[in-house]
From TrEMBL:
Protein name as annotated: Pyrroline-5-carboxylate reductase
Domain Pyrroline-5-carboxylate reductase dimerisation: 162-268
GO BP terms: L-proline biosynthetic process
Gene3D superfamilies assigned to the protein according to its UniProt record, in alphabetical order: NAD(P)-binding Rossmann-like Domain (3.40.50.720), ProC C-terminal domain-like (1.10.3730.10)
Source species: Meridianimarinicoccus aquatilis
Localization terms from the record: Cytoplasm
Pathway connected to this protein: Amino-acid biosynthesis; L-proline biosynthesis; L-proline from L-glutamate 5-semialdehyde: step 1/1
Cellular component GO terms held in the UniProt record: cytoplasm
EC number per UniProt: 1.5.1.2
Gene Ontology MF terms in the entry: pyrroline-5-carboxylate reductase activity
A Pfam family annotated for this UniProt entry: P5CR_dimer
Name of the top EC class for this enzyme: oxidoreductase
Known role: Catalyzes the reduction of 1-pyrroline-5-carboxylate (PCA) to L-proline.
Entry keyword annotation includes NADP: yes
Length: 270
């Protein structure tokens, strides 16, 4: 973990599902709870159980980073309390879907270093991916500090343009939910074919986890890995004929799914 974060502290505004997923990852990677200040109106039992965490006692005078992890709709209520930290070298790191950097700058002052990012909940097990983009007040050192922090809970990618963030949100921010639903659907289909529910769920989870791990580790493309499973005239070919149907299969469905999520991100930014 970056030294500046340990010495100056990490402030977390809003610690629900996403904030907790990231915090869980950081604590697992050795960040001391005493370096973290969390403000949340209804802390979970998990937060309350963390020894040494600075919970609902305000923020330090000059934290290295303020992680903003409240819902976009709560931003106008939550942020004004932090204006005293704006315009200095404290980096505001937002994970909120849709909320543009300009909106933070309006509330915190134009001189505030602001990074807009989009993580995902696999951060809780160190397998997240976070895309990030900063305003011109974020110097290379500040960007590296944020990347250092975020890379403790998974991969990081820098975006060239803030406008790419809506599509990123539709793919990797919301993406884990699509994959969890795939697990649910695969398990339900297995049960419909006669398997006990628990066994079907075990098979579905292990298959998605194993395929994901293989896709990441292999030198072959996902398309080639798919071909490797597909014996001529075999069972996979029969299944894929349904799944890959160009009119009613997965490609148009996923295209519409990602578009709906990205459109919602754009809407939240209005
Ligand atoms: N969940 C996900 O997978 C991802 C979420 N995000 C983004 O993360 C942000 C949080 O989402 P998520 O964690 O799912 O939502 P949650 O509702 O789980 O978390 C938000 C937390 O903020 C708290 N809160 C509300 N008002 C304030 C306030 N004024 N000051 C401090 N804390 C406050 C809420 O408390 P209470 O519940 O009591 O109101 C809640 O605990 C959103 O902006 C979302 O776009 C980004 C990527 C992925
Ligand atoms: O559903 C949402 O709005 C948030 C952003 C990405 C994932 N969850």
């Amino acid at each position: 973990m970056h030294d500046t974060i340990t010495t100056r502290g990490l402030a977390v505004l809003g610690c629900g599902k996403m904030g907790s997923a990231m915090l869980a990852g950081w604590l697992q990677r050795g960040l001391a709870p005493s370096s973290v200040w969390v403000t949340d109106p209804h802390p979970s039992d998990w937060l309350l159980s963390i020894d040494g965490l600075n919970l609902n006692v305000g923020f330090p005078e000059s934290p290295a980073v303020v992680l903003v992890a409240v819902k976009p709709q709560m931003m106008a209520d939550a942020l004004p309390g932090l204006t005293a930290l704006g315009g200095r070298d404290t980096v505001f790191l937002s994970v909120a879907a849709g909320v543009p950097i300009a909106r933070y700058a309006d509330m915190l002052g134009e001189n505030t270093p602001i990074i807009r990012s989009m993580p995902n909940t696999p951060a809780a097990v160190g397998k997240g991916i976070t895309a990030l983009v900063g305003n011109d007040r974020v110097n290379e050192e500040a960007m590296r500090m944020a990347e250092d922090l975020l890379s403790a809970v998974g991969q990081t990618v820098r975006l060239e343009h803030e406008s790419q963030m809506d599509a990123v949100t539709g793919v990797s921010g919301s993406g884990p939910a699509y994959v969890f639903h795939m697990i649910e659907a695969l398990a339900a289909a297995g049960a419909a074919e006669g398997l006990p529910t628990d066994l079907a769920m075990q098979l579905a989870k292990a298959t998605v986890a194993g395929a994901g791990a293989l896709a990441e580790a292999a030198t072959e493309t996902p398309a080639q890995l798919r071909v490797n499973v597909t014996s001529p005239n075999g069972t996979t070919a029969a299944g894929l004929e349904v799944l890959m149907d160009e009119a009613a299969g997965l490609p148009p469905l996923i295209r519409a799914t990602v578009k709906a999520a990205a459109d919602r991100s754009r809407e939240l930014g209005q």
